[in-house]
């Protein structure tokens, strides 16, 4: 005859559940113990003291200045007394007045100094600006300057090519270009500053393709004229 057992009194019935609950409880205690943080209340301080007051006036450094000692007292010069009977020779004072016999220089005898003409005059100050090919019909200096700027922009837009290596690397920016229009109308002394060598090389290529211009003149004399312009490289 087999013994009868009550299933509700069997202790091994929920053993797996109890094991999982116990394991979760132990892991929870371990996590709390690892994350538990304590702070030392004795080291509290006002963090507002770390911020400098931007309106605080700087106190100038005072350098003590020492008064220099007075110069030494010099003895008075010895005065020599001369007897009245002794003759004294006075120095002769030359007269500054002119007489009628003195020759007066004529105006033609005076050599006038020739003023040296400037070798280089800025674009905005020159009397006769350089003439870009196609701007010869303009009459006033302001119209020639405006036409020069317009033709420069048209030349850059016509010859502009974005460097392939700059496109692949995503390089863009502004290249500042400065060059000089020589006395014969040619372009020289090109200087560039930009964010990348490939952009500078492209800007130099564009400026070197500029046509020969009519040179600028100052006092009817051909002079060198520096000119600067920015070239923007933008990726779309």
TrEMBL record:
It comes from the Bacteria. One of its GO terms (biological process) is transmembrane transport. It is a single-pass membrane protein. The keyword Protein transport applies. InterPro entries: TonB, TonB-dependent_transducer, TonB/TolA_C, TonB_C. It is found in: Cell inner membrane. Belongs to the TonB family. This is Protein TonB. It comes from Pseudozobellia thermophila.
């Amino acid at each position: 005859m087999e013994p009868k057992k009550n299933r509700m009194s069997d202790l091994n019935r929920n053993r797996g559940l109890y094991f999982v609950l116990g394991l979760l409880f132990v892991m929870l205690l371990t996590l709390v113990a690892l994350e538990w943080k304590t702070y030392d209340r004795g080291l509290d301080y006002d963090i507002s003291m770390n911020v400098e007051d931007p309106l605080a006036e700087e106190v100038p450094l005072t350098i003590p200045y020492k008064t220099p000692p007075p110069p030494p007292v010099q003895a008075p010069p010895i005065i020599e007394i001369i007897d009245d009977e002794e003759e004294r020779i006075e120095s002769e004072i030359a007269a500054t007045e002119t007489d009628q016999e003195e020759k007066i220089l004529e105006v033609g005898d005076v050599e006038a100094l020739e003023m040296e003409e400037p070798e280089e005059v800025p674009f905005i100050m020159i009397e006769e600006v350089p003439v870009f090919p196609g701007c010869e019909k303009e009459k006033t200096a302001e119209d020639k300057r405006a036409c020069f700027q317009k033709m420069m922009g048209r030349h850059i837009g016509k010859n502009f090519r974005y460097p392939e290596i700059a496109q692949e690397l995503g390089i863009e920016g502004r290249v500042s270009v400065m060059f000089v229009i020589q006395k014969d109308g040619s372009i020289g002394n090109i200087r560039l500053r930009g964010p990348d060598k490939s952009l500078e090389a492209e800007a130099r290529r564009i400026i070197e393709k500029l046509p020969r211009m009519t040179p600028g003149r100052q006092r009817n004399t051909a002079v060198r004229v520096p000119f600067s312009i920015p070239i923007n490289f933008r990726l779309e």
